[in-house]
Amino acid sequence: MTIRILVAAIAVTCIGGCESLMGLMQKPPPKPKPSFHPKPKTVPLRRTDRADQLVIIVGANPRDVDADGYPDLLDVTAILFEGQAGEPVFVDGRFEFELEPLDDSVTRPWRVWQISESESTSAAGPTLFDLPGYGFTLDLRENGGDQMPPIAANLVGRFSPASGAATVDCVPGQRIVQLGGSERR
Asked: According to a count of CB atoms within 10 Å of the terminal CB, is the N or C end of the chain lower?
């Protein structure tokens, strides 16, 4: 019986000796809310004298700005990359873009745009996904006209650094644009 009394006395002593740091009236701290807007990753704007890779992206639909039924303008984004990690960079130099018709009966070169070093410098800035690159608008009206039968063409490009480093051709791939008048009446 003394053991039971001793155990009960120890239990009452231990229960009374417990202490809470929060108390009865304090609320627990609020849980952090998940962010639906993650912090953006920043890409440094870096200039160099050469590039190892050129990626070009052409807008999905050429624009018909004079409303004559024929596409006039091609929106093109060019991004230069350097090194193994493929960091986007700005490089002084010239771009050349060419439309290569998928129809083999068309004489080549068909439509070529030469972009000077000063025009390239003016076009430099943030592009898709805020990557450093170049934004160009190629105008068919200034390069043979926009009125032609329907034709599909692939846009290719190359970059020649002002430093004299090696010319960089665009990454292989299909950047097909549909040009000419529409079949609808």
From this structure: C
